[in-house]
Known about the structure:
Layout: H1 2-40, H2 44-82, H3 84-111, H4 113-120, H5 126-158, H6 163-183, H7 192-215, H8 229-244, H9 247-259, H10 266-301, H11 305-332, H12 334-342, H13 349-362, H14 366-381, H15 386-406, H16 418-430, H17 437-462, H18 468-493, H19 505-539, H20 544-547
Amino acid sequence: MHQDSGENAQVVRAVGQIGGLTLLSRIAGLGRDMVIGSVFGAGLAADAFFVAFRIPNLLRRLVGEGATDAAFVPVLTPYLARRPRAASRMIRAFFGTGLGLLFVLTGLGICFAAPITRLFAPGFTGDKLLLTTDLTRVMFVYLFCVGGAALATGVLHALRHFTAPAFAPALFNAAVILSVLGLSAHMAEPVMSLAYGVVLGGVCQLLWQLPALVRHRVSLRLSWQPGHPALRRMGRLLLPLVFGTGIFQLNQIISTLLASLLADGSVACLWYASRLFEFPVGIFVVALSTAALPSLATQAGQRDWAGMQESLGFALRLVNVVTLPAAVGLAVLATPVTTLLFFRGAFSAQDVVVTATTLQALAPGLWAVAATRQVTACLYALGDTRTPVWGGAVALVVKIGASLVLMGGISLPGETNWLAQGVAAVSGMLSMQNWGVVGLAAATSLAALANLGCQAVRLSRRFPAFPWHQWAVSLLWSGLASVGMLIVLWWFVGQVDWLGPAGSRLSRLGSLGGAILIGLGSFVVLVWPGGKAELRALLGLLPQRLLGFLPQFLQPRQ
């Protein structure tokens, strides 16, 4: 038990390290989106960019992050523990083979940008389609750069070095912001400045992590060895990882595809809402799963099943305490947050309403996405890649079916392709609500719940002694406290006219800050009787100098 507590403490420390730097990156990301919204709004150009960006970004997340974090870490960990020299050769083969495959994917993407764009945005026609294709062709270069950065991230995570990878996205956001502000006014097609900024950001992410690799004495020599035993094992894991780890990204692509069939601005509003949704996911959820994976992999290698159950149960209880109130906050504060971040320049009041409503439909899925990430990491550490595939397949079916039911009828111009016409015909037969892009967001939440359900059932069979009772008690207390927080926030937010002419931006910012503090305070008070251990663990993430100001009963236990 002492060893399990040590692993939990190590995970918590790593979560704090990753989460703090990721918070900085996410704040920079919000700044980036604010700049994009102010300059390009939620119109044709923004739609074109967000579709073009999603295409290489999907491949980056599936082939890059999915393979490195969920497959490479469990494969490399035993090498590092038992065969350091073999681990060095494996890393060289990993970099050489991975970069070679990324080079091929990048070249294919540039050559076939036009048909790829028509596939992912069947509702785009004319100038909008041509602009999206041009943007896609440029941003496929980003795939190679950021894919290389993802390979470096996988190695550093296996070595339990988290700071450089966690900070790298902040450089990406800075590059995009500077490109938009510095180039957009001087280009014939201003939105192309975004594409160039994305490529520059990918280069920065890759170069930033190289010194950290050198400090860990990782050789940067490349070796083309696709037949390396460890790479063959990773290759066997890759296809399941695409469906398991990448199911959320696949759902986003489907949402973008369907949103391209709706009115102009639908893709952009969905993007802005998704970015706000991913803010708590990026700060805590990704940090927790990233930090827990090496510990789970080590425990699996030692066949410490009791330790794995304890580590996973601890992670899932933290998910309850963090994501349930975060989901309530996202839903109730959707309009205030969207207004303060985006309501300026080309971003209209109608764009605020659509984006905020879309965010409210995404919010219920936050807890399911967070819990699924932890369960998936545990299954991968156990070598179970089939369960995430089945969960992902079920979620995909739920996503598509619910989207067609909820998005409503589609009106298409005559020149759209066969895919757009087929989707429009099926949607016309199945449609029960006319929620548009909000229906796509609601379908995403339903798919996340379906994915979690499938994986949790399988996990309960692998771990019959899993501490479900402790988890259920944590869920109950967090749920009840979140309901109380919802009531308090709903009343407070209703006292302010967020979109009206009265009141300055500064006063509304103060009101939003007050709402967050009141909501957070009410949640802590309500959840405290049943969530002391989880809250103290989370408070342990704070810097030591801040802990001294906390009341004694809130102090984390050593």
